[in-house]
Structure formats: C-alpha cells, structure tokens
C-alpha cells in the first residue's frame, strides 16, 4: 500500500476533476493507487509515478474518461439516433431529388415533393448532422469548426435556393448568390487550408 499522504494526493486530484459519477471517481482512485504503487516499487518517485499513471490512464485528462464512460452507457441510444438521422436524411434527399425529376418531367406533385424534401434536408437533416459533427470536432482548431459550420449552412441554402428557383418562387436568386458566396468564400478556403496543413504535417 502507498503512504496515506500519497493516497490523499491522488484522491484530491480525482476529486478536483469535473467527473460527477462517484463510482467512477472511486474506481479511478483505486486504479491510480495501484499503478502508482507498482511504479514506486520499481524505483520511481511519487510525482513521476503519478505522471506515468496519468499518461497510461488519461493522457488527455480525466474529462476524457468521463466522456468515454457516458458514451459507453449511452452507446445503444447514440447508435439509434445516428441511424435515424441518416435514414431521415436519405429519405428527405430522395424525396427532394424525386421532386426535381417530377418537375423536369412536368409531372404533378413536383412542388410538394421538392418542398417537403428541401425542408427536411435543410431544416432537419443538416442541423442534426452539424450538431452531431460539432460534438466530434469540439476540441479541434477554430478553422476546422468554421469549415463545418459554414459548409453545412451553405449546403442547406443551396438546397433551398435550387428549390425556390425550380418552383419559380421569389428570392431564389438572392438565396443562390448568398449560398455560393458562403460556399466559395467561407467553406472552400477553410477546406483547402486544412488540406494544405495536413499535407505539410505528413512530410
């Protein structure tokens, strides 16, 4: 067993984290105590042993463990929501494309299909996709976040603008111009900048 002084230090480290689940805190304290004890028996000082235990257990901080634990507890719900999101996106996209086809073939119901599909893609699927994606890039640099935010907004506007244009609704030209500006000036520079940075880092 490690000294009580060291155990209190480990307890204080874990308690000062943002982890709220007490059972998870207790497990981490036991885990850190075991790892530190093993490393100290090998000749390391407490500080070095604790640092090594941190690197082995939580190299990106204790918050990451809490996030991973929450993810595991909610895995089935998260997977269900992801499947639902992509199925809904697929159905709305197919509806929108069918509406365009109906419009080009001068078939009845084109306006309803295009409108329903455009609303679903722009107002349901794309916002859900952006929220889901933002959770994954929350720790990324600002340019990566802006790339996805501006990109998804511009795509949503393009879908809406194309729909307005084909249905001869007012404002289609302005909406199309704004969407192209956002895509060309807001999204593509971030995309190519990130691609450039990645290629440089791979050298």
Descriptive overview:
By secondary structure, the chain is mainly α. The protein is built from 8 helices and no strands. It has helices at residues 4-15, 22-41, 46-57, 62-73, 75-104, 110-136, 142-166, 172-201. The protein is elongated. It starts with a helix and ends with a helix. The mean pLDDT is 80.
Largest sheet: none
Q: What is the succession of H and E elements?
A: HHHHHHHH
- Total helices: the number is 8
Rounded average pLDDT: 80
Class based on secondary structure composition and strand pairing: mainly alpha
Distance between the termini: 48 Å
Portion in strands: under 5%
Instruction: Give start-end ranges of low-pLDDT stretches.
Output: none
Relative helix content:
over 70%
Give the tally of β-strands.
Answer: 0
User: Which geometry do the CA atoms define?
Assistant: elongated
Gyration radius, to the nearest Å? 26 Å
Topology summary:
Elements: H1 4-15, H2 22-41, H3 46-57, H4 62-73, H5 75-104, H6 110-136, H7 142-166, H8 172-201
Helix pairs in contact: 1-2, 2-3, 5-6, 6-7, 7-8
List descriptors.
203 residues; 0% strand; single chain; 8 helices; elongated; mainly alpha
In brief, what are we looking at here?
The protein is mainly alpha-helical.
């Amino acid at each position: 067993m490690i000294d009580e002084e060291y155990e209190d230090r480990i307890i204080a480290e874990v308690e000062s984290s943002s982890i709220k689940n007490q059972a998870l805190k207790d497990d981490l304290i036991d885990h850190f105590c075991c790892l530190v004890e093993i490393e100290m028996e090998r000749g390391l000082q407490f500080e070095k042993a604790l640092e090594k235990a941190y690197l082995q257990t939580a190299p990106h901080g204790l918050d990451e463990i809490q996030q991973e634990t929450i993810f595991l507890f909610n895995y089935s719900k998260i997977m269900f929501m992801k499947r639902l999101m992509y199925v809904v996106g697929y159905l709305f996209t197919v509806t929108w494309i069918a509406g365009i086809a109906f419009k080009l073939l001068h078939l009845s119901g084109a306006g309803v299909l295009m409108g329903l599909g455009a609303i679903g893609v722009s107002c349901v699927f794309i916002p859900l996709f952006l929220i889901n994606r933002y959770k994954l890039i929350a720790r990324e640099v600002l340019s990566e976040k802006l790339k996805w935010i501006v990109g998804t907004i511009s795509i949503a506007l393009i879908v809406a603008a194309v729909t307005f244009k084909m249905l001869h609704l007012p404002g289609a030209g302005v909406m199309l111009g704004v969407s192209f500006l956002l895509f060309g000036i807001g999204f593509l520079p971030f995309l190519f900048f990130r691609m450039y940075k990645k290629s440089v880092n791979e050298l």
